[in-house]
């Protein structure tokens, strides 16, 4: 058995977790290809995006940042500066590279607004969690339930298009993509156990 829900009060009692590995900030288009060559070797990538929040009715912004994480290193690509390169489109369309995240449907829809492409190799952990009966399949909730940690929300509504990202923004963004990898391993195990129990019951 595993938890299906967690309260905000319970999350707030947990210790905050931050990514403490290497973070590479990419602000030039020519730096993207080198980063992706390194990421391709990992075969499993945690992915998240950040967008400048809109506070006025009818106001909207494009994705400003895409975070691509391995267990020990996170690349932050500032799309607001680099543009959407062909090498990045190829990476996101490559079925041989597994990309995992929470709420990816939303992320991919917004990325495709910048440049149409066919996503491949994506696993949306929200859908995996929902299939297991988890009632709160968000990143923060699942990090609390399955990893016993709390993710800071401090920078969630900050300006991701500012000239220079703050150290706090950089760590926040890297942590969210990295935690997706941790959750993938937990949820994959739970999914396998769930299938075994259903098979035994049948």
Summarize the structure.
This protein is α/β, with parallel strands linked by helices.
- For CATH, the homologous superfamily is named as Ribonuclease H-like superfamily/Ribonuclease H
How would a crystallographer describe the biggest sheet?
A: 6 strands, mixed
How many β-strands, per DSSP? 6
**Strand percent estimate:** 15-25%
Order of helices and strands: HEHEEEHHEHEHHH
Shape by Cα distribution: globular
Number of helices: 8
Strand order of the largest sheet: 1-4-3-2-5-6
Low-confidence stretches: none
Number of domains: 1
Oligomer classification: single chain
The CATH class label is: Alpha Beta
Computed over alpha carbons, the radius of gyration is: 17 Å
Termini separation: 18 Å
- The computed structural class is alpha/beta
CATH topology tier name: Nucleotidyltransferase, domain 5
- The name of the CATH architecture is 2-Layer Sandwich
Overall pLDDT confidence = 94
Percent helix, as a range, is 40-55%
Molecular structure report:
The protein is of the alpha/beta class. The protein has one domain: 2-Layer Sandwich (Nucleotidyltransferase, domain 5), CATH 3.30.420. 43% of the residues lie in helices and 16% in strands. The protein contains eight helices and six strands; from the N terminus they run H-E-H-E-E-E-H-H-E-H-E-H-H-H. The chain has helices spanning 8-12, 32-40, 79-82, 86-92, 104-114, 125-131, 139-147, 167-201, and strands at 22-26, 44-51, 63-69, 73-77, 98-101, 122-124. The chain has a six-stranded mixed beta sheet, sandwiched between helices. The longest helix is centred in the last third of the chain and has 35 residues, at 167-201.
């Amino acid at each position: 058995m595993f938890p299906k829900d967690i309260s905000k009060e319970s999350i707030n009692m947990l210790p905050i977790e931050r990514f403490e590995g290497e973070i590479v900030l990419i602000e030039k288009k020519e730096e993207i290809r080198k980063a992706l060559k390194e990421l391709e070797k990992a075969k499993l990538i945690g992915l998240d995006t950040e967008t400048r929040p809109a506070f006025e009715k009818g106001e909207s912004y494009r994705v400003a940042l895409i975070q691509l994480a391995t267990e020990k290193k996170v690349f932050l690509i500032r799309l607001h500066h680099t543009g959407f390169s062909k090498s990045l489109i190829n990476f996101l369309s490559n079925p041989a590279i597994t990309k995992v995240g929470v709420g990816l449907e939303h992320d991919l829809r917004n990325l495709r607004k910048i440049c149409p492409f066919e996503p491949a190799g994506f696993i949306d952990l929200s859908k995996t969690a929902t299939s297991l009966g988890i009632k709160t399949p968000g990143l923060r909730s699942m990090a609390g339930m399955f990893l016993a940690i709390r993710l800071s929300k401090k920078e969630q509504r900050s300006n991701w298009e500012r000239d220079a990202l703050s150290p706090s923004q950089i760590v926040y963004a890297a942590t969210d993509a990295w935690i997706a990898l941790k959750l993938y391993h937990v949820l994959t195990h739970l999914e396998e156990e769930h299938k075994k129990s259903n098979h035994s019951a049948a």
